[in-house]
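Marked as duplicate of an earlier ticket. Keeping the data here for the record.
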Amino acid sequence: MSDEVGKKTPLDASQYQMDLGSEGKVTMVLDCNRGRGNWQATFSDNSLSGQFRFGPMAMTKALCGPDNLEQFVAAQLGYIRSFVLEGDWLYLNLMADGGTLVWRRVVNNADKLTVSPTGGGPRNWQVVNIDTALNVRQQPSLHAAIIGQLKNGALLYNLNGCVAGEGMTWCDIQPLVGGVRGYVSLDYIQPAVAPNGAVVYGEDDSALRAGQREFDATGQVQCASTKAEEISQCAFGVARSGSGYATVVITKSDGRKRAVYFVLGQAIGASTSQADWGEFSATRDADVHIIQVGNERYEIPDAVVFGG
C-alpha cells in the first residue's frame, strides 16, 4: 500500500483467493466472504503490464474477525487502474499512487497435472496399475482405433497435455524409447519419478542451452571413433535440466560434435546426420553409461549427467 498506510499482510494469505476467468469473470474469496463480478484489462506491447479495472462486485459482508483484511481489500478493488505481471506475481496498482495489491499465482495441482510441459505440466509419465497392456488410441475416445499397447512401468513423453472426452481424461503421449504417438487414459499413468525421487515439471531446456554452448560443466570422457581405435579422451560440455535431464556434447577426434541426450538419467539417443549416421545403443557398467553410435563409443559417468 502507500507509505502513509504501510504494508498490510493477511494473517493467512491462503484465505485470500482470486480467479480471473478468461471471459472477463472474476470470483474472489476474501477470508470468510465471497465475491463475484467482472474485470477487464488493456495490455501494453509487452503483454506484462497495462490498464486494469474491476466492475461492480457482488460481495458477502460477514464479519470475519477484527484483525482480518477482507473489508479493506474489498474497498480497494474499485480504485485499481493498472497492473504489472512479473513471473507468478500480479501487482494491481491503485489510482493516484494509492498503493498496490499484490497477488501470487497458484497453479491447481489437478490443472498442473493435465497440461503440457510448456504449460508447467510433468515432463514424463509412467504407466501404472496395468496387469496386461494399456491401449494407445488414435483419438481421445474409447471408440477410437487402438494403435499400440504399453506395458506396466513404461516411460512416456507428455507431448501436448490432456483433454476431456467421454467422461474421461486422455493424455497425448509417446513412449520414451520411441513408438507410436497417441492417447491413453490418465487413470493408468502418473508423473514419472526421477532417480533422485523428484517429479519434474516444465520444459527440458538442456538441448537448447547446449546448442547455445551454455554448459553447466566441461571436462573429458573416454571415447573411441572406430572399433579399431584405442580408447582415448574427448572433450565434453554438459547442459543439465535437473533430475537426470541433460544434453552432453562431445567433441570427437576429427573436431565434429556428437550430442547424447539423457531423460530421467537414461541415455535415449544421439544427434545424427546423413553424413554422420550410426545406430544408437546404450548400456550401463556400474555408474557409467556405455554409448554406441555406429562404430563410435563413449563412456559417460552418472556424475556428468547429474552433477556432483
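See parent ticket for discussion. The longest helix spans residues 70-76.
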